[in-house]
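Subject: Predicted fold for UPAR/Ly6 domain-containing protein, 152 residues

User T.R. writes:
Posting the sequence so we have a shared reference for the thread.
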Amino acid sequence: MLLLANPGHSGAVSLPNSWALDPAMGTSSAVLCILFFCGALGQGLTTLPARGRLHCYTCSFAKPCYPVPTECGDDEACGVSIGTSEQSEVIQRKGCLPRAQCPLPGHATYWSRSYTLRHHCCDQDLCNAAPRPLLPTLLLTASFICGRTLLL
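User M.O. replies:
I've generated the structure tokens; pasting them so everyone works from the same file.
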């Protein structure tokens, strides 16, 4: 039985003999295995984001929107800004917005056209994702039903 000390926790972690480090593995392999186990046990090598700040999707007015997760500032919320021009063209962007800006209308210029913005804000990680499109689901269902009818 192999015992690994788990710093910061009481006791040790025991592993089966089949998991023991073989001297033929070399020092670098042994170090990598130990680092892996420390990371797997939640020690040191984690890449989890710090708690406290929101993480929101961000993308510009450009279409299509390829949202990228972003960490917001202390006084920011996740938001979706929807702009409408005088010609009834609609644009949309996502990102972190100052909380004070959320209830207020805004203005933006995009491709030399003026838009009036409405902001929709939320306070949970990645809450400003787009709703799932209904059309592909309907098309898949319709093709299944039609295909089944044709096969009968």
